[in-house]
Write a structure and sequence with these properties.
Chain A has about 400 residues and is α/β, with parallel strands linked by helices. Helix content of chain A is about 40%, strand content about 15%. Chain A contains 13 helices and 14 strands. Chain A is globular. Chain A starts with 5 loop residues before the first strand and ends with a strand. The chains are: A alpha/beta (about 400), B alpha+beta (about 150). The interface between A and B is medium-sized, with 27 and 29 residues.
Chain lengths: ~400, ~150
C-alpha cells in the first residue's frame, strides 16, 4: 500500500467537519431529549432543531418554515416527485406529465420511472455534449397537463451546472412547479431559491461536511406537499419520525461553514481542478467530460480510451488515491453510466471514466501527485490493453 | 473488499502479460461495448503449450482471470487446456462476485478461440468443443452481454 492517502471522492461523501461534530456531540449524550416531549429538558433540543432549520434556510435564501428535514437527498427527491403527484391526485388529477432530464441522479430517475408505472407521463430531456440542458427544450416540453419540472442543479458525475434560474423563470411563467436536486450544489456554489425561482429543492448533509442520514427538502410557501412518511406528525405533520437533532444541528453547522468559506474555497478548488484538467486532458485520447467552465469547482471528470474504469480505480487505490468511475464494472450493472451515454459517449469510451472530486482537505501537492500517478496507471493499463496501439499512441478501434 | 486476495494479487501482479511474435494460435473475445476484451497468444510445441501471453482491456476481475487462466494452461497439453472451464478459473481465484463471473467465461473463451486459431493455422478441422456460442472472428462477441 501507498503511504500517501488522497481522498478525491468528495462528490461521493465528505468527512464531518470539526465544527459540525462539535455542534452535534452534546445532542447524543447530554441534550438527547425527544423534541416532541413537553419538559424543559427536551425543549433544549427543539430549540436547537429550529436554530438549525433557520441556519440552513438562511444559506438558501429561504424562510425557516419552508424547510423540512429528511433522512437525506434521496428521500427529499422521492418526496418532491411523489409528493407533487400525490398532491395532484388528492385534487382529483390522477395522471399528469412530468419533465426531467436523462442525466438526473437515480433518486429522481427511478422515482420518475415509478410514477410512469402509476400512469404519469415523463419526458426525459436530452443534454448537449457538455451535459447542459437547453432551457428552450424545457419550455417546448411543457404541456397543459405538466405538473412538475425537475432538473438537477449540478451533475454528480460530470459536474455540469445547469441554467437553473433560466429554467425557473420558464417554469414560473408557465405556472408549473419546479424542483431541483441540488445535492451536489448546496455548499459548493451559491444557491438562492429566490433567484432560481424553484418551488422545491433537495439537499444532503454529507456532501458538504455534515453527517450522513440527514438532508432537507425546501418547499416554497404556500406549497404543501402531502407527507411521504406518515406517523407521529413531526415537521408540522409533513415528515414523521423522531427528529434527527444531532444530524440537523451538524448539517446546519457544516453548511454555514461551507457557505461562509465558499467564495475563497471555491476559487481555490477551481484552481486545483483546472490544473488537474489541464494536465490529464493533455494525455492522448483523453477528454474532459462535462462543461469546461460551467462546472462544480471541485469536480474533474475524464474518459481515457482503451482503459477500463474499475481497473483504473483499483490501481489508484493501491497508490492511495480514492476516486470513482461511471464504468459498468465499478457497479453491478453491465452498462456504463447513463450520464456518460447521454452526453453522447460510445459505450466503449464511457467504460474508461474517472471522476476526481476535490474538497477542503486537498492540496496543491495532492494534485501534483495525482498528475504523476494517474497518467502512469493509464499508460500501464493501455500497455496491457489489446485495443491500444502503443507505437501510434491511439486505440485500435473505430467507433 | 470486493475481491479475494488472490484476485487482487493477479490483478496487481498479472502473470504472462504481453504478446508472442509468430504465435501458433491467437484468439480474441469480448466487445469494447461491454468493456471487456481479452486476447490470448499461444506457443505450441507438439502437443504442449510452451508459452502463453495475454492482453486484456477490462476490469479488475477480467485482468485477474486472464492472468490466472494463462498460468493454468502453461506447460499443459492442448487436451488439458481444452477442458479448462470458467468455473475452474474462478475457483482458482478463490471465487468472483456473481456479476463478475462473465469475466471468467471470457477467459475460457479466449483460450478456446486461440486453440481454434491454432487448428485453423495448421489447416486442421476445429474440434467441436472449441466452437464458441457466437462468431468471434473479429473479437466482437461477448456471450455475457451480447
Amino acid at each position: 500500500m501507498s503511504e500517501r492517502f488522497i481522498y478525491a471522492d468528495h462528490a461521493a461523501t465528505t468527512a464531518v467537519t470539526d465544527t459540525a461534530l462539535a455542534a452535534m456531540l452534546p445532542h447524543f449524550t447530554r441534550d438527547y431529549g425527544n423534541p416532541s416531549s413537553l419538559y424543559r429538558f427536551a425543549q433544549e433540543g427543539k430549540t436547537h432543531l429550529e436554530q438549525a432549520r433557520a441556519q440552513v434556510a438562511a444559506c438558501l435564501n429561504a424562510k425557516p418554515e419552508e424547510l423540512y428535514f429528511t433522512s437525506g437527498g434521496t428521500e427529499a427527491d422521492n418526496w418532491a416527485l411523489r409528493g407533487v403527484a400525490e398532491l395532484m391526485a388528492l385534487k382529483g388529477k390522477k395522471t399528469g406529465h412530468i419533465i426531467t432530464t436523462a442525466i438526473e441522479h437515480h433518486a429522481v430517475l427511478h422515482t420518475a420511472q415509478y410514477l410512469e408505472k402509476l400512469g404519469y407521463e415523463v419526458t426525459y430531456l436530452p443534454v448537449d455534449g457538455d451535459g447542459l440542458v437547453d432551457p428552450a427544450a424545457v419550455e417546448q416540453a411543457i404541456r397543459p397537463d405538466t405538473i412538475l419540472i425537475s432538473v438537477m442543479a449540478a451533475n454528480n458525475e460530470i459536474g455540469t451546472i445547469q441554467p437553473i434560474a433560466e429554467i425557473g423563470a420558464i417554469a414560473r411563467a408557465h405556472k408549473v412547479l419546479f424542483h431541483t436536486d441540488a445535492v451536489q450544489a448546496v455548499g459548493h456554489i451559491p444557491v438562492d431559491v429566490e433567484a432560481w425561482n424553484v418551488d422545491l429543492l433537495s439537499l444532503s448533509g454529507h456532501k458538504f461536511g455534515g453527517p450522513k442520514g440527514i438532508g432537507a427538502l425546501y418547499m416554497r410557501k404556500p406549497l404543501r406537499l402531502p407527507a411521504l412518511i406518515q406517523g407521529g406528525g413531526q415537521e408540522k405533520g409533513r415528515r414523521s419520525g423522531t427528529e434527527n437533532v444531532p444530524g440537523a444541528v451538524g448539517m446546519a453547522a457544516a453548511l454555514k461553514e461551507a457557505v461562509d468559506r465558499l467564495p475563497e474555497e471555491s476559487a481555490r478548488l477551481a484552481t486545483l481542478r483546472d490544473k488537474l484538467i489541464a494536465g490529464l486532458s493533455a494525455l492522448p485520447y483523453t477528454r474532459l467530460t462535462g462543461h469546461p467552465v460551467k462546472r462544480l469547482p471541485g469536480t474533474a471528470s475524464f474518459v481515457f480510451e482503451g482503459v477500463e474504469g474499475e481497473a483504473l480505480l483499483l490501481h489508484l487505490d493501491a497508490k492511495g488515491i480514492c476516486a470513482s468511475s461511471g464504468s459498468a464494472c465499478s457497479s453491478a450493472s453491465l452498462d456504463p453510466s447513463h450520464v456518460l451515454l447521454t452526453i453522447g459517449l460510445p459505450h466503449a469510451i464511457a467504460h474508461g471514466s474517472l471522476r476526481l472530486s476535490l474538497g477542503p482537505d486537498n492540496t496543491e501537492g495532492d494534485v501534483e501527485y495525482m498528475l504523476k500517478e494517474v497518467p502512469a496507471v493509464v499508460e500501464y493499463l493501455r500497455e496491457m490493453s489489446p485495443v491500444w496501439d502503443k507505437d501510434a499512441q491511439k486505440p485500435t478501434w473505430e467507433l | 473488499m470486493l475481491y479475494s486476495d488472490k484476485v487482487m494479487d493477479h490483478f496487481e501482479h498479472p502473470r504472462n502479460v504481453g504478446e508472442i511474435e509468430n504465435a501458433d494460435g491467437v484468439g480474441q473475445v469480448g466487445n469494447p461495448k461491454c468493456g471487456d476484451i481479452m486476447k490470448m497468444y499461444l506457443k505450441i510445441d507438439g502437443d504442449v503449450i510452451t508459452d502463453v501471453k495475454f492482453k486484456t482491456f477490462g476490469c479488475g476481475s477480467a485482468i485477474a482471470t486472464s492472468s490466472m487462466a494463462t498460468e493454468m494452461i502453461k506447460g499443459k497439453t492442448i487436451g488439458e487446456a481444452m477442458t479448462l472451464t470458467n468455473a475452474a478459473v474462478a475457483e482458482a481465484l478463490d471465487g468472483l462476485p456473481a456479476y463478475k463471473m462473465h469475466c471468467s467465461v471470457l477467459a475460457e473463451e479466449a483460450i478456446k478461440a486461440a486453440l481454434a486459431d491454432y487448428y485453423k493455422k495448421k489447416g486442421q478441422p476445429v474440434p467441436e468443443s472449441l466452437k464458441l456460442p457466437c462468431d468471434c472472428e473479429e473479437g466482437h462477441c461477448c456471450s455475457a452481454c451480447g
